[in-house]
Amino acid sequence: MASGAGKSAAFALLVLNLILYAIVAIMASWAVNHGIEKSRKAASVLPIPARIFPIYFPFGNMATGFFVIFSLIAGVVGFISSATGIHNVVQWNLPNLHAAAASSLATWALTLLAMGLACKEINIGWTDSNLRTLETIIILLSGTQLFCMGAIHAGVEDAVARVRAYGGRV
C-alpha cells in the first residue's frame, strides 16, 4: 500500500472512530448514571438474589449491566486511543506507528468484548431504544476499528519496508 493512501485511510478511520467512541462513552455514562439513580427503588421489590446483584439496571435485561460497563470502558479507551492514534498517524514514522498499532489492537479487543455482550443482550431481548442504539454503535465500531487497525498495520509494514530499502535510514 502506498504510504499516502494508508495514511489518509488510517486518519479518516481514526477520526470516525473518535466521534463514534465519544458517542459510546456519552451514552454508556448516561446509562450508568440512570442505573445508579433508579436501581435502589426498582431493586427493592425484587427477590433476594436479584436485589443483591451488584450490577443491576432498572431497564433492559440481566446482560445490560455488564454491557453498559464494558461499553463505557471501551468508549473511554477507544476515544483516548483514537486521539493519540491521530497524532501518531500524522507523524507517520515507525515508533509512532507501532504505538498506534498496539493501542488500536487493545481497543479492538475491548470493543469485541463489548460487542459480545451486545450480542448477548440482543439474544436475550427486551431492551429500550437507547440500549439498541448503543448496541448498534458498538457493533459498527468493532468493524471500523478492525479496518482502522488494518490500515495502521499496513502503514507499519510499509514503514518497515522503507527502512529495509534505505538501509536503516528513513
UniProtKB/TrEMBL annotation:
This is AWPM-19-like family protein. The lineage of its organism: Eukaryota, Viridiplantae, Streptophyta, Embryophyta, Tracheophyta. The chain crosses the membrane at residues 12-32, 53-80, 100-119. It holds the Pfam family AWPM-19. The keyword Transmembrane applies. Keywords: Membrane, Transmembrane, Transmembrane helix. Signal peptide: none annotated. It comes from Davidia involucrata (Dove tree).
